[in-house]
């Protein structure tokens, strides 16, 4: 069930949490799948205590739900959940962009450009995990550059849900993964111009591209 992975070294709860999160985000564990502590502990070769703690953390992140007398399950997902994530990001990220542009240096632009190039290369190599890693890093860099601790923490908390949407939609709505990277080019270009309005418009176009496809898709199942 869990791809035969095992946990090594210390911080067992952290490691179990990351392994389970990765399996949920990538769809290896499906919505509604029951998560039995004893089975997970046996699979990962750990005691039940770190598994219990990991499941508790994943409940906070919205990836797991717990029902009394029934146990823990991978949470279900709906278009409403997706709309909430997208609409919240659409409110928050323009503020991050605005603040980031105030702190932007030439070195930052080079770093963002490198992330974009790495994303594009990963897309051309059809490396799904690397595309997501660099996509996430691109947006995370903007949030860090905004120098707003509370907003960055909210972004971090939202990442798992965003990743879950991303892994599903990237394989449905994009024929080539480098198309995902290309959606970031207008954002990068606007940042080079230090044009706040154009940058925010580019970000919203990037978000709407996928959301509109989800909204109009009557067959998509989360």
UniProtKB/TrEMBL annotation:
Recorded superkingdom: Bacteria
The HTH gntR-type domain, residue ranges: 10-77
Keyword set, alphabetical order: DNA-binding, Transcription, Transcription regulation
Alphabetized CDD domains for the sequence: WHTH_GntR
Pfam family, one: GntR
Example GO molecular function: DNA binding
PANTHER family: GLUCONATE OPERON TRANSCRIPTIONAL REPRESSOR, TRANSCRIPTIONAL REGULATOR, GNTR FAMILY
Name the record gives this protein: FCD domain-containing protein
Organism: Metabacillus idriensis
